[in-house]
Design goal:
The protein is an alpha/beta fold. About 40% of the residues lie in helices and about 15% in strands.
């Protein structure tokens, strides 16, 4: 048996200062301070939202507000950031568990509820940016309209069009109006295409997370 096969992980949690220093070394001290001061919301923790959440956790975003009513189901595992051990868990708790394993210092606010026009402004009131990551077009429209109308300081980054197995290069980030950014190909609806696959959904999630990062750092162009 090789030494690698025999090796046992050493239990170790870096201090907050060590964690900050490691991220600042990669992102620069100035940028890391801005990232750690940010509060970002994610509405929907399926294939898109769960991946966005982990990207933002790896950046060291200071606070994440996570909302989703559902529990993890076997049918989720082909594209969502969950494992067999999470089956039956509320998605908010399952993704929180993974985030804490990446960065124990991210502040998490969990809302295992159905988002509505009545509760969305209260849930996301402290967020400078909210990622819309719902599956249904009517829910997407509801959230975008509600946040843009009722939270005048909040920017929305939305996902639209990531179904099927078309080229990943067709997924882009656009800026159709002042406080709204849209990531996706804008056309590929799962109701028409009939499938969602992990790689293409992941590309769209990376677009959303990257736009969130740029906005945190004061870069407002896609």
């Amino acid at each position: 048996m090789s030494l690698a096969e025999n090796a046992q992980p050493i239990p170790y949690t870096p201090s907050r200062e060590e964690f900050h220093a490691a991220l600042a070394e990669r992102h620069t001290e100035t940028y890391q301070q801005l990232i750690e001061q940010a509060c970002v919301g994610i509405a929907g923790l399926g294939g898109l939202g769960s991946a966005v959440a982990l990207h933002l956790a790896r950046l060291g975003v200071g606070k994440l507000v996570l909302a989703d009513l559902d529990a993890v189901d076997l049918s989720n595992l082909h594209r969502q950031q969950y494992a067999i051990a999470h089956l039956g868990m509320p998605k908010t708790e399952a993704i929180a568990q993974q985030i804490r394993a990446i960065d124990p210092y991210v502040e998490l606010e969990l809302h295992p509820v159905k988002i509505s026009p009545e509760n969305a402004p209260e849930i996301f009131r402290d967020c400078q940016i909210v990622c819309e990551a719902f599956d249904q077009p009517d829910q997407k429209a509801m959230l975008i309209e509600t946040l843009l109308m009722q939270l005048p300081e909040t920017v929305v980054v939305s996902g639209s069009g990531m179904a099927g197995i078309d080229s990943a290069n067709s997924i882009t980030t656009t800026h159709p109006l002042g406080r709204l950014y849209v990531c996706g190909d804008g056309t590929a609806d799962v109701a028409e295409v009939g499938s969602l696959v992990s790689p293409r959904v992941g590309v769209c999630a990376a677009h959303e997370a990257n736009m969130v990062l740029r906005l945190i750092l004061g870069m407002d162009e896609p």
